[in-house]
Amino acid sequence: MSSGDERYEVGDTLTFGDVRIDLAAHTAQRADNRVSLTPKAFELLLALARRKGNVASRAELLREVWGYDPLVQSRTVDSHIAQLRRKLDDPAAPRYFLTVRKAGYLLVRPRLT
After folding, report:
1. Domain that holds residue 66
2. How far apart are CA 88 and CA 112, in angstroms?
3. What is the pTM (predicted TM-score) of this model?
4. Is residue 48 part of a domain?
5. Fewest CB within 10 angstroms: 35, 36, 94, 102, which?
């Protein structure tokens, strides 16, 4: 895990904007609508959330979520970020899942409740 690793407890919920993530149930809601996430998209969401608003590189995310060697070049992270933006953000003007040029991705600092 990353140095920003945080353990979540059963019953914990992450919130950012109008998004609510139930960690125990592996479910997400945007506004009052339930959102279906693939298991890897959910793991990616957690990997970003653990960093508490800090940037994660593609290599870190590939290693942490997919178990890939850091030398592997893949667009997997990008396609999963696009999926999270479509379902939990605004793909045209993302507010939560941000790209940091030449560094990676970050999730705006979510609140743990």
Report:
1. 13-105
2. 17
3. 0.83
4. yes
5. 102
**The total number of structural domains that make up the chain:** 1
Quickly count: other Cβ atoms within 10 Å of residue 111's Cβ.
Answer: 8
pLDDT tens figures, 87-113: 999 999 999 999 999 999 999 977 777
The β-bridge partners of 35 are 28
Q: What is the pLDDT of residues 49-77, one digit of tens each?
A: 888 889 999 999 999 999 988 777 788 99
Residue with tokens 């696009």: 82
Task: Tell me whether residue 53 is in a domain.
Answer: yes
65 lies in some domain? yes
Chain centre distance of CA 102: 18
Residue 71 has a CB neighbour count (10 Å cut-off) of 7
Q: Is the dihedral of CA 92, 78, 4, 101 positive or negative?
A: negative
Examine the pLDDT at 44 and tell me if it is beyond 90: yes
Distance from C-alpha of 6 to C-alpha of 37, rounded to nearest angstrom: 21
**Residues ≥6 apart with Cβ < 8 Å to 90:** none
